Amino acid sequence: MPNYQPQRGTYDAYYEDALNIEKIEDSLKSVALNYGYTPIHTPIYESTDLFTRSAGESSDIVTKEMFDFTDKGGRNISLRPEVTAGVMRAIVSNKLYATHDLPLKQFYLGPAFRYERPSAGRYRQFNQFGVETVGVTSSYEDAETIILGVDALHKIGFKKVILKINSIGDQASRDNYRTALKEYFKPYIDEMCPDCKRRYEVNPLRILDCKVPEDIEKVSNAPKMGDYLNEESKARFNEVLSLLDKEKIEYVIDNTLVRGLDYYSHVVFEFHYISDNGTNLGAIGAGGHYDNLVHEVGGPELSSVGFAFGIERLNSLLKEIDLENYARPTLDAYIVYLGEKAKDFAFSFAHDIRKNNLKCDINLEDKSMKASIKIALRKNAKYMIVIGEDEINNNLYQMKNLLTQEQVALSKEDIIAALKK
Ligand code: HAM
């Protein structure tokens, strides 16, 4: 039996959902453009090495969640589990750092793939909108990226965003912290889960990602990154915090935040939102500063900062926040015709309205007047225009405001002029 079922962890979006997703995406893009970012498009598949190297061999993403395969030419390929690595690869492949002013400011929107256990707000194919600023030295850029994230969330309708922030410091601070973690976990590691045993050897920081109930207490009592930051790292973190204070951006310092990808250094952050009904989908967006990614994929040493939002999480929460204003299909005009001759005329009339950049629909399946009115209402048309033979002969058509029920008879030209207003 052939299988035509949707794949686990995938979804179809249509009507209001699809419209709202596009509305969110348009708003996010416009905020990024306002901040001086330009779009970048990169492939959804890349060599598996790129992701292994960037996300880190010990990360859950690489060890458990990659959609990897061998193509017909024997290459090891993966669907991207996130977009940052591909953007860095594109910047290096195209030497953008040599041909454009630094910092490069790129934004992107597109699907990512992770073989995770599907649950609320967790899919195997999902969409990310993100920004990356490459060639950063100043902590102002770290702060600007975070502020962009908060502004964008406000713009799409999130009024009370929770911004969690932490610093994982520079390499030297993290090395110290790693040593402290190894020492702390040493007496427990033999009785901890197999993942933790592996992480202990490869990257003890990843032990902090452990969700196994028996390990949680040991993990929560582990040393905190904040206590291992050297003076330089502390100073950089304080600079970012004071810029956020200056711009009145509220945040919570969360010293357990280390993020699930290996490339970060210095400031890391997550955006959260808990709805009035208590819905919490985890992070709606996350990111941080990273120092080595461009170099690791073959380019020069350029520090960067960026974040990505999960579009599906934003969309489901926005539906809860404000169902009233959740996107609905709307039309400026809906055209109703009565009879074959009128149909021909109405067909061109609709075309003329649309040529004026107005939203207009017509059902060309010879519906009755009663059925047409119902469709016009369901499509949230502002006006209904009725076309019959008499109307054509007199060049006067009934234009009805479907909200107020007011009705006027106008010529075709006057109708178009009125709709444009
Ligand atoms: P991430 O935290 O792995 O970071 O993902 C960013 C966001 O993508 C999450 O906060 C979440 O909203 C969404 N997301 C992740 N996994 C799923 C899923 N399975 N289903 C639905 N949504 C999901 C990154 O990907 C980094 N590249 C962010 C970044 C950019 N850091 C620096 N620049």
Structural write-up:
- The protein is of the alpha+beta class.
- The protein is 40% helix and 23% strand.
- It contains 16 helices and 16 strands.
- The strands form three sheets. An eight-stranded mixed beta sheet has the order 1-5-6-11-10-9-7-8. Strands 13-12-14-15-16 form a five-stranded mixed beta sheet, sandwiched between helices.
- The protein is elongated, with a radius of gyration of 27 Å.
- Bound molecules: histidyl-adenosine monophosphate.
- The site of histidyl-adenosine monophosphate (HAM) has 26 residues, from strand 6, strand 10, strand 11 and helix 12.
- Write down the overall geometry: elongated
Biggest beta sheet attributes: 8 strands, mixed
Question: Termini distance?
Answer: 57 Å
For the largest sheet, list the strands in their spatial order. 1-5-6-11-10-9-7-8
Please tell me the overall pLDDT.
95
C-alpha-based Rg, rounded: 27 Å
How is this fold's topology laid out?
Layout: H1 15-34, E1 38-39, E2 45-47, H2 48-55, H3 60-64, E3 67-70, E4 76-79, H4 84-93, H5 96-99, E5 104-113, E6 125-134, H6 139-156, E7 162-167, H7 171-185, H8 194-202, H9 213-220, H10 231-246, E8 252-253, E9 264-274, E10 280-290, H11 293-296, E11 304-310, H12 311-321, E12 331-337, H13 340-355, E13 360-362, H14 369-378, E14 381-387, H15 389-394, E15 397-401, E16 407-410, H16 412-420
Parallel strand pairs: 1-5, 7-8, 12-13, 12-14
Antiparallel strand pairs: 2-4, 3-4, 5-6, 6-11, 7-9, 9-10, 10-11, 14-15, 15-16
Helix pairs in contact: 1-6, 1-12, 6-10
Short description:
The chain is α+β, with helices and mostly antiparallel strands. The chain is built from 16 helices and 16 strands.
